[in-house]
Design goal:
Structural class: alpha+beta
Largest sheet: 6 strands, antiparallel
Strand content: 5-15%
Oligomer: single chain
Helix content: 55-70%
CATH class of the largest domain: Mainly Alpha
Shape: elongated
Number of domains: 3
Length: 430
């Protein structure tokens, strides 16, 4: 075989360089496409979560409009109720469109739809009934509406929590998968770029280019980390991630506000004390083996909707949360940490307590009104009434304490003639 000429060698080198460059260009194009696709998936998940939150907000505002109308009787609340009900239905349809490719989420939305329709129908029926009975004679019916609405609200909350938790887990999974895929592609690109520069040049040029690549890679990793933190910080729930040794490796802005001065390297048996995690009784520190994050990160257990009370050091009052945790697994199913999501339900608890107190007060008022039925002992002479304790009181006082009646006093014509005859004579017969 004849030795290759300089031109042939040059052409071969150029061809190899072009092939390698084409491969790098292809991988870069593919990586860019995948990155755009992953960002679209992340944005899609965030849009689903925002639509879910908007649905809950519109339902809550519809409930507030009904409550406002019952209290004030202002017709503007009726229009607001209709507007928020329509908006809630629209958000549900938007969620259906967004999750058209997720059969599991569609099943949950199908279960949510009739509950939402019943809830909004109850609100409308309640307002229409009150509009027909502005004198307040519909209290018993309104209490029944409130009770039935509370039951539907609990069912809707259970479905929505499952929907939200599934979508949040999908979002975290997509972010983790994106980060892993990016690192793998970056490794391949480094190898191919190194091959190009080995063919074309050697020595210092290759080293300098590797430095540039490394700097670029670090910048990309920093940007991706910022993206992950931005997504986590956009949620109102506190999120903490720990490795399998119990070290806190990630916490979003809400969690950081709770535990601003707590270092990440804290033994799990000190978490309850330093983070201020108590049982639902608000007094008992939660044992280390019961902490949701410890159960997920150290033992691979799953925890759903566990009520915990968080009162960090320096806080006068704590906050009640629902904790849900999951272990973090790699592609081979090996556990390498855990994540916990803490949802603040303090205001919801207060609303539930206020609702229960309102129901109790209404029952008490109804009970007081009912005491006016039956036999009423009254003196035939002075017309005073004997109460349940045996004391004789004026009939006005007795009735006023047991109803909403207010008395005004006057004199009938017969009493005027008997007590003030001169006044009666002046007025004459009538």
């Amino acid at each position: 075989m004849l030795p290759l000429s300089f031109g042939a060698k040059t052409n071969i080198v150029i061809a190899l360089a072009m092939i390698t460059l084409a491969a790098v260009d292809y991988l870069s194009f593919r990586e860019t496409s995948q990155l755009i696709n992953r960002e679209a998936q992340v944005s899609h998940s965030r849009e689903v979560l925002e639509a879910d939150a908007s649905l809950s907000l519109h339902v809550s505002q519809a409930i507030s409009a009904r409550r406002g109308y019952l209290i004030t009787g202002h017709d503007g609340e009726i229009g607001l109720l209709a507007q928020e009900s329509a908006a809630a239905q629209a958000e549900l349809e938007k969620l259906r469109a967004l999750t058209a490719d997720n059969s599991d989420q569609l099943v949950r939305l199908q279960a949510l739809a009739p509950l939402l329709q019943k809830r909004l129908a109850l609100l409308k029926q309640s307002v229409e009934l009150h509009h027909q009975n502005l004198d307040g004679k519909d209290r018993t019916a309104q209490d029944a509406f409130s009770k039935q609405g509370g039951e539907l609200a609990e069912q809707m909350s259970e479905v929505q929590q499952t929907f939200h938790k599934t979508e949040t887990s999908l979002l975290v999974q997509r972010l983790l998968e994106a980060a892993g895929a990016d690192r793998q592609v970056l490794r391949i690109e480094r190898l191919l770029v190194a091959l190009v520069f080995v063919v074309l040049v050697a020595g210092l040029v290759f080293v300098n280019h590797e430095i540039v690549l490394r700097t670029r890679s670090e910048r990309e990793l920093i940007d991706k980390e910022r993206l992950v933190r931005s997504v986590l910080n956009s949620t109102g729930d506190a999120i903490l991630v720990a490795d399998r040794d119990g070290n806190i490796i990630l916490r979003n802005a809400v969690a950081a506000r709770y535990h601003m001065n707590v270092p990440p390297q804290v033994a799990p048996d000190k978490w309850a004390e330093l983070f201020g995690v108590y049982r639902a009784d608000k007094k008992t520190l939660m044992p280390a083996e019961e902490l949701p994050l410890a159960r997920a990160a150290l033992r691979g257990e799953e925890v759903d909707n566990l009520e915990v009370y968080i009162r960090p050091r320096g806080w006068e009052n704590g906050r009640l949360h629902l904790a849900s945790s999951r272990p973090l697994l790699d592609g081979a199913g090996r556990r390498h940490g855990g994540i916990v999501i803490l949802r603040d339900i303090t205001e919801r608890k207060v609303l539930e307590e206020n609702r229960d107190q309102l129901i109790a007060d209404l029952h008490k008022s109804l009970s007081n009104i009912k005491t006016l039925s039956g036999l009423l002992p009254i003196c035939a002479g002075c017309k005073r009434v004997r109460d349940d304790r045996g004391y004789w009181t004026q009939v006005e006082d007795y009735v006023a304490k047991r109803s909403e009646v207010t008395f005004s006093h006057g004199l009938c014509p017969e009493c005027v003639a008997g007590l003030y005859p001169e006044v009666a004579r002046k007025k004459g017969p009538h």
